[in-house]
Design goal:
five-stranded mixed beta sheet; 3 domains; 12 strands; Heat Shock Protein 90; Rossmann fold; alpha/beta; single chain
Length: about 475
């Protein structure tokens, strides 16, 4: 009875082992069809060899007897088989994990590609919209039967479209600098109440056109702080412009400043921007500060924007060491709360910031500019201000003109940076090294599209006395020239 049971198990084991060999062959073939397993080729062979040996052991017992010796061999071989299978399983798991990582990278690349495609699509739309206005109104203004009033209206709309286009370019460049970690703060004594009211004045007309009620309040015992006024103004403008865009007619927008605490040298300030606009969904609020994100609704889709404003705003506030919170409900409105802890400015650091109207009559300037259109625009602005302009088409020509000049021939040099033959920095250094101190000391102002903080520092390092960014802001240009000439 016992002997019969042993041989029954041997016969069944032989059949099962033959089935295992068949299944393993199919399994190994299937696995090798899903990737390159060249390094594991020998490892795949071990189980099949052991399985064949097991089958031969079963068959030898079935035909020749001696089960004890065969069973011992099977047990020893089984240990090797288990080890080989564990190694194979481990390699398989490693390969699965590697595939999962690759799939995650592919998914991230596809998501980045989709975001890039969406961004380019948005940019194409947003850039072409003001360009279409600029080209269209320019064509209309050139018509022979256009009245002076119509032409003036067209020019006004061209200017507005041009500023929209500039805002788009600034957003893209600003986001690029943020992502590369190159955005820096320019801390100067700033009157926060003046900064708040300046931001409010810039959007007031836009809100009034939509019949939106706009209120501004400032409560600060220590309004003068060390702050990057331009960056803070940029952040506030992003919030206020969004409030204006997404608040319907007869709605309300408010801007407030409140000092909540103050120590000997620091103040804590809260800035709130509230509106009664369309609000945001909870899902979109989670992605609000993600670059290139826009909420996909019929109302929002009609509104122009890069999807970068809120990301830029948050990065500016973060760089200032502050925080920004948002509360919003669809159909009821949105509130942004900015909290800033800023150094309080000393009394001797405060200034009224008012620029005196300068008289440039009799001022003689050398204008170095290689672009004919830029040259024409800059020369017209300067001449209208009473400045006599002499032109140079590149840096080398500017240096030669100064070298050949007599003291007093030029009161000022306006220098583009990127020019052929000799760039603006090299030209400025060459002028500063002239042997005649009167010529070498002529004030030089960079007038360039290189408009970032490091560009201003590079101009200073080259010996320049000021910096004017393109596109030219006439008021800023006149103030810079006035400051340089006074010094």
């Amino acid at each position: 009875m016992k002997q019969g049971l042993i041989y029954l198990m041997i016969y069944l084991g032989s059949a099962l082992m033959a089935f295992n060999i068949f299944r393993y062959v199919l399994f190994s073939k299937h696995v090798r069809n899903h990737g390159n397993w060249e390094r594991e080729r020998r490892l795949f062979r071990i189980p099949i060899i052991l399985l064949v040996l097991f089958l031969m052991g079963y068959l030898s017992v079935a035909f020749f007897g001696h089960p004890d010796l065969v069973i011992a061999g099977i047990l020893f071989g089984g240990s090797i088989f288990v080890l080989a299978m564990l190694l194979l399983i481990q390699r398989t798991v490693d390969r699965i994990q590697e595939n999962e990582r690759l799939e995650a990278k592919v998914a991230a690349a596809e998501e980045a590609s989709r975001a890039k495609t969406m961004f380019l699509s948005n940019m194409s739309h947003d850039i072409r919209t003001p360009l279409n206005a600029i080209i269209g109104y320019t064509t209309l203004a050139e018509e022979e039967d256009v009245s002076p009033e119509q032409k003036s209206a067209y020019i006004s709309k061209i200017e507005k479209a041009g500023r929209q286009l500039l805002d788009i370019v600034n957003d893209v460049l600003e986001m690029s600098r943020i992502e590369s970690g190159r955005m820096e703060l320019d801390l100067k004594p700033t009157d926060l109440t003046a900064c708040i009211r300046e931001s409010a004045d810039l959007v007031r007309t836009q809100l009034e056109r939509k019949r939106i009620r706009f209120s501004v309040s400032c409560e600060a015992a220590h309004p003068w702080v060390q702050c990057d006024r331009i960056r803070l103004n940029r952040a506030l403008m992003n919030l206020l412009c969004n409030a204006g865009k997404f608040t319907p007619e007869n709605g309300e927008v408010s801007l407030s400043l409140k000092e909540t605490a103050c120590s000997a040298d620091r103040g804590v300030y809260e800035i709130r921007v509230r509106d009664t606009g369309i609000g945001m969904s909870p899902e979109f609020i989670e992605k609000l500060f993600t670059p290139f994100e826009r909420e996909r609704t019929s109302t929002v889709s009609k509104t122009q924007g890069t999807g970068l404003g809120m990301a830029i705003t948050k990065n500016i506030i973060d760089l200032m060491g502050g925080g920004i919170q948002v509360r919003s409900k669809q159909g009821e409105g949105t509130e942004f709360l900015i909290t800033l802890s800023l150094p309080v400015a000393r009394d001797d650091e405060k200034a009224d910031g008012k620029a005196e109207k300068a008289d440039f009559t009799g001022v003689k300037a050398l204008l170095a500019e290689d672009n004919e259109i830029n040259m024409e625009i800059a020369a017209a602005i300067l001449q209208k201000a009473g400045i006599t302009v002499e032109k140079a088409e590149n840096g080398r020509e500017a240096v030669e003109k100064v070298r050949a000049a007599a003291p007093g021939d030029y009161d000022l040099i306006l220098m583009d940076i990127q020019m052929p033959v000799m760039d603006g920095f090299s030209a400025a250094k060459a002028i500063r090294s002239l042997p005649d101190p009167a010529l070498a000391g002529i004030p030089i102002v960079a007038m360039t599209a290189n408009a970032f903080a490091e560009d201003v520092r590079a101009a200073e390092a080259a010996g320049m006395n000021g910096h004017i960014a393109k596109p030219i802001d006439v008021n800023a240009m006149m103030k810079t020239i006035s400051d340089v000439l006074k010094k």
